[in-house]
Amino acid sequence: MANPKEVELLGLWVSPFVRRVEWALKLKGIAYDYIEEDILNKSALLLRLNPVHQKVPVLVHGGRVICESFLILEYIDETWKQSPLLPQDPYDRATARFWASVAEGQLLRNAWIALCSEGEEKERAIEFATEALGHIEGVIEGKAFFGGEGIGYLDLAIGWVCHWLPVWDELGSMKICDPAKFPAMVAWTSRFVEHPVIKENLPPRDKMVVYFRNMRSQIMASKGHA
Ligand SMILES: N[C@@H](CCC(=O)N[C@@H](CS)C(=O)NCC(=O)O)C(=O)O
User: Which cellular components does GO assign to this protein (predicted)?
Assistant: First the structure.
């Protein structure tokens, strides 16, 4: 039988979805083996473990497989109770999940579309992303972290805004996370990246710029943009 304590993570260095899982494991002090995937040449292991989406992150715990980063965060929180990530109160838990889904479905999705598009499509995506960020600004106002005094589930869910969004903003010549419009979010990003677990587990910015610049060029070329 598989060792029930054994934890493995299939990941990709530049993925915000993978990093949020790593942050959770590290905040809780869970040791794990990390396996880097090449998503352009997916391993037989990844295809076997995540045949439905064929994406990282994939967590394997004692031989059992969990896919999808938000579900992995919930699994980690329920399996290792120390340093809880989700709030205890059911209403607060539902609210945290709601905002995580808004941040993913509206902010992240549209920030990515804005990065990889031009003209009207880009403008519309920036508008949707900005609107979502405005709602999220209202949630963080007056708080140190989305989780209250410390980092919680929603901080990890939105954490990509601190390190990925500025790179996308730069490469896409846009300013979705504008300090003049979203001062509370910008203050939160500074607090979030100062946490040692986050600070020590961010991909190098210069490598990210190269990676996303190439990815953007390929996507733009496939859409017929220069
Ligand atoms: N909703 C997924 C998204 C995961 C995702 O998109 N992962 C990317 C890496 S950043 C991937 O594996 N892409 C491979 C592919 O699209 O074929 C999650 O939250 O885990």
Answer: cytoplasm; cytosol
Q: Is the dihedral of CA 185, 128, 21, 13 positive or negative?
A: negative
The pLDDT assigned to 225 comes to 80
Atom of ligand 1 nearest to the CA of 14: 10
Ligand 1, atom 6: nearest CA belongs to which residue? Answer: 55
Q: Around Cβ 15, how many Cβ atoms within 10 Å?
A: 20
Q: List, for the chain, all residue ranges whose pLDDT scores fall below the cut of 50.
A: 1
205: nearest Cα among 1, 12, 14, 71: 14
Q: For the chain, which residues make up each domain, given as ranges?
A: 7-79, 90-222
189 lines ligand 1 (CB under 6 A): no
Spacing, Cα 142 to ligand 1 middle (Å): 33
Residue 57 C-alpha to ligand 1 middle, in angstroms?
Answer: 7
| Residues 72 and 25 sit within 8 Å (Cβ to Cβ) | no
pLDDT on residue 1: 43
Residues 37-64 have pLDDT tens digits of 999 999 999 999 999 999 999 999 999 9
Q: Would you tell me which CATH number, out of the four given (3.90.960.10, 1.20.1050.10, 3.30.1490.20, 2.60.120.200), belongs to the domain 90-222?
A: 1.20.1050.10
For residue 91, the CA-to-ligand 1 centroid distance in Å is: 29
